[in-house]
Specification:
The chain is an alpha+beta fold. The protein has one domain (about 35-260). The protein has 4 helices and 15 strands. The protein has helices at about 5-55, 100-105, 195-200, 240-250; strands spanning about 65-70, 75-80, 80-85, 90, 125-130, 135, 140, 145-150, 155, 170-175, 185, 205, 210-215, 220-225, 255. It has a 5-stranded mixed beta sheet, covered by helices on one side. It has a 4-stranded antiparallel beta sheet with strand order 1-2-3-4, with no helix packed on it. It is elongated and about 100 Å long. The N and C termini lie far apart (about 85 Å).
Length: about 270
């Protein structure tokens, strides 16, 4: 006659299976995230190629980070990835025609969150707005009664002849702040924006097992695994120290360097 398993034997087997599952689960998660990180790096590399292609076509000018253009129907917002018309509709952005699969390329596979800018689809990536991409201001009336908008009312990015350290200058990366993702990468010194709140909302997400992927100005992609708080947060009495939690969301998010060395190509 066949002997059935006893209750104790079943409990022992169940305990062994549970133990093995608890040991293997973190490893499986790590393997899955490594795969996502590799795909993220590949997409960032494609974005870098697209930006360089754009610059080759448009007289060595990199894509604008964001511009506000006055149209007959209202203000049109032109961001580096998506364009939003005055009615809120989303259209292809400046880099769209330079990538084979733009909507897929502009998505980080490890990011799942909501849009933090208008109604455009979330990307999880951000673009060096402090030094590379032009940043426009809201349309204003000029001295001659003409409306100044778009490129005519924007802070320009540094020209290509000023790019002295392309290997160590971030172009695109995993964007992150307390609210999710931020597609405008900011340098920590705040000497360009003059606003620490904006700067600390434009940091990087260290979402890939404690690391963040970066596409550098020379085209290569290299991860950074040390999140920095920024030069202004070194002392607990500074205003920036309060920004570490909000809007930054430290330590999940941080800067690539405490100073501007990873952002300023000069």
């Amino acid at each position: 006659m066949r002997r059935a398993f006893t209750l104790i034997e079943l409990l022992v087997v169940l305990g062994i299976v549970t133990l093995l599952a608890s040991v293997m689960l973190p490893s499986l998660k790590s393997v899955r995230e490594n795969s996502r990180s590799s795909e993220c790096a590949s997409r960032l590399r494609q974005l870098s190629v697209a930006a360089q292609s754009y610059a080759n076509v448009f007289r060595e000018v990199f894509p604008p980070a964001i511009l506000f253009e006055m149209t007959p129907s209202g203000v049109r917002t032109v961001a580096w990835d998506f364009v939003q018309d005055s009615s809120g509709g989303v259209q292809p952005g400046p880099l769209w025609s330079f990538t084979d699969h733009p909507f897929t390329v502009q998505q980080c596979p490890s990011f799942d969150g909501s849009s933090t800018f208008g109604a455009d689809p979330y990307t999880g990536f951000n673009y060096n707005t402090s030094f590379i991409g032009a940043e426009g201001s809201w349309p204003i009336m000029g001295e001659n009664g003409e409306v100044l908008s778009g490129w005519r009312n924007a802070r320009r990015g540094l020209s290509m002849n000023q790019h002295r350290h392309p290997t160590d200058t971030a172009l695109f990366g995993d964007g992150g702040w307390q609210g999710g993702a931020n597609k405008f990468m900011r340098a920590p010194s705040a000497t360009v924006e003059m606003d620490l709140g904006i700067v600390y909302a434009g940091a990087q997400a260290f979402r890939h097992l404690g690391c963040t992927n970066v596409a550098w100005l020379d085209g290569h992609v290299r991860g950074v695994c040390q999140a920095c708080t920024g030069m202004h947060a070194a002392q607990s009495t500074s205003a920036a120290f309060a920004y570490l939690q909000s809007p930054l969301g430290w330590p999940q998010n941080g800067f690539l360097s405490d100073d501007d060395s990873s952002y300023d190509p000069r």
